[in-house]
Structure formats: C-alpha cells, structure tokens
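From the methods appendix. Each design record in this collection lists the tokenized structure first, followed by the designed amino acid sequence. Records were kept in a plain field format so they could be parsed without special tools. The example shown here is representative of the layout used throughout.

RECORD:
FOLD TOKENS (347 positions):
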C-alpha cells in the first residue's frame, strides 16, 4: 500500500465518524475556564512549530504538555499519525465545554468544505456540523478562501470524583477498547463510560473522540490570578506568569511544583514567602509532609509581572512515613525492633 493510499484511507476513516457530535459535558460555573488537552494526530508529516501555529498555542506550552525538553526546536519532526497533546483554553457555557474562541482557521485554496478542514487539518477532533453551527454557516460546503473560522474543540472543566481533572479529548485507536484506554490513562472503564454519556463499550468506534479524565495536580493559585484554572496532568510542565515561572506536575505529590525561571525584563525579583524562602523552596520534612513556598499566581501590568506566593503543606504520595513496607504492611521502627529482639531470643 502506498503512503498516499494509506493517508486517503485514514481521511476516509476519519470522515466516516464525523457525523457524531464531538462535544463534552461541562457543568462548571457558567463561563468557567480551565486548561484542557486534545490529542491531535496529524494526517501528514509536520513539525512542533506547525502544530503550535495551527492550534495557536505557544511552542513552550506545547512542549511542556508532551514533557519534551524546553530546547526542542520548532522544526522538530512529528510523524504522520503520531499523537501530540495540545493544550487549549476551555470555556464552559450552557452545559457544554468548547475551546475558548480558538483556534481560528483561515480557509485555504483546496479546502473543499468543512468536512475537509475537519478531517485533514484538525484530525477529526471536532465535526463539520459543529464548525458550521458556531460560525453561523447554513451550508457546510459554502466557504471562501481567506474566510476565518472558529474551530470548536471539545473540552471540560468539571471535577471527576471530587478531584480537579485535566480532560483529554482522546481519539480511539483502531482495535482499542474502553478497558485499554482506562489502563493507559490511569482511570477506570466506569468513569470513561459515565463521562461519555453512558457509552456502550461494545459500540466503541475507531477514531471516535472520548472524554478521558487525567488526574490534575492541586495548586495554590488564587481565583484572582490571571492564570487561575491552570491545571496540569502527571509528566507535564508549563511556563506561566509571562514566562517568569515554570510549573510542573509529578505523581510523587500530585501538587503543582513551581519555580521562578524567567530572565525577561518584565520578570520581578525572585518572590519569597519569607526572607530567603523562595518559590519552590521547602523546609525539612516531617514524615511524609513538608512546608513549601507555593506559587499563588500573578498579576500583570503594562510594565511588569507581579508573582504571588503562599505557604502550603505538601504530602508525598510515594512516602511510607519512614517505615518499611512488607507485603502491604507498614512496619514502624518500634515494631522492627521488637521483631529483632524476638528473633535473638529464639536463636
């Protein structure tokens, strides 16, 4: 099979599923916004810079979402069909989550209707019906070169199981299953089924878009901060505060870990919670907890960025409080000493 034929079959397969509405439920506060992800599969060989331009996100945020080195060049190759996680700003309105008026796509010569744009350019992450609806187009085939179109991408800001969540718009691979997807992303089949309208697992289709929840790191970001709603999943990072702060998420604490990193003229002097206790600094630990100087967001003016801080307590998820674990039982130092004495007595 030639590469051209394989691409044609992929596009046909994508188009075959494009009649289903790719919208996610979002019952958060009206007009709530947050950071979500879409799993983009380019139909041809491309670059990270081109993907960032297509979705109108900055390259450092794209690299961070994929846990790639910050120095990865914009011309770094992305193979056809390879998944790329793209961060988007999500807005909840009337019970539905959509990307917040972005990306905007300019119709090019050769774009044969909205179905072509949906499948070829945006990997079937949305539908031509949704593009037509949000842009007020009565005819999906009546578009003009140079016309600007909002591409509504599915997303959500809802908590799942009472925890903050990064919602991922995930494209189902051929031959995959709900169980396999749940295992891959660290959730349960029941959660995926519930989030997707009580989906029937036996009716799962290749290239279908599913709402898959990723556990988010908790944070101390104030609701008055410019970047309020910033959510990160495990194995990702993001520059924020105008590039003056970098935050990351790790399963070790599932707590947003930030440090001041920018050297721009708009970046302030290193922020502290108290003298010489900077963002990201922690005190000596006590058991599995530690006190840290946490990033609390930022304010922005025409002249400079102001970084906010707060004191926080962090608990490690991979800590056993100094004891030893044996077959699922935690043994304290005292218990181990008693066992050692008994061992000596019976020798």
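DESIGN:
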């Amino acid at each position: 099979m030639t590469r051209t034929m394989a691409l044609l079959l992929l596009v046909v397969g994508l188009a075959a599923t494009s009649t289903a509405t790719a919208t996610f439920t979002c019952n958060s506060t009206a007009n709530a916004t947050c950071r979500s992800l879409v799993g983009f599969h380019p139909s041809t060989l491309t670059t990270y810079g081109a993907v960032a331009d297509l979705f109108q996100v900055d390259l450092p945020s794209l690299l961070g979402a994929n846990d790639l080195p910050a120095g990865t060049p914009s011309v770094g190759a992305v193979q056809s069909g390879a998944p790329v996680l793209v961060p988007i700003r999500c807005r909840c309105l009337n019970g539905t989550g959509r990307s917040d008026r972005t990306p905007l796509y300019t119709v090019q010569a050769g774009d044969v209707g909205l179905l072509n744009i949906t499948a070829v350019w945006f990997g079937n992450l949305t539908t031509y019906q949704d593009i037509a609806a949000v842009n007020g187009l009565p005819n999906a085939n009546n578009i003009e070169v140079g016309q600007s179109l909002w591409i509504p991408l599915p997303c959500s800001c809802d908590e799942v199981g009472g925890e903050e969540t990064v919602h991922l718009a995930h494209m189902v691979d051929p031959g995959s299953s709900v169980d396999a997807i749940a295992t891959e992303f660290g959730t349960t089949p029941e959660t995926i089924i519930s989030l997707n309208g009580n989906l029937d697992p036996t009716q799962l289709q290749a290239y279908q878009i599913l709402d898959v929840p990723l556990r988010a790191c908790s944070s101390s970001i104030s609701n008055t901060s410019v970047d309020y709603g910033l959510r990160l999943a495990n194995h990702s990072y993001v520059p924020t505060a105008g590039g003056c702060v970098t935050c990351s998420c790790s399963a070790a604490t599932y707590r947003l870990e930030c440090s001041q990193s920018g050297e721009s003229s708009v970046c302030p002097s290193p922020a502290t919670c108290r003298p010489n206790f900077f963002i990201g600094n922690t005190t000596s630990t006590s058991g599995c907890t530690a006190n840290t100087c946490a990033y609390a967001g930022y304010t922005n003016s025409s002249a400079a960025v102001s970084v906010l801080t707060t004191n926080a307590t962090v608990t490690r998820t991979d800590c056993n409080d100094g004891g030893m674990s044996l077959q699922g039982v935690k043994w304290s130092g005292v218990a181990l000493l008693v066992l050692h004495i008994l061992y000596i007595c019976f020798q």
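APPENDIX NOTE: Confidence is low (pLDDT under 50) at residues 1-19, 323-344.
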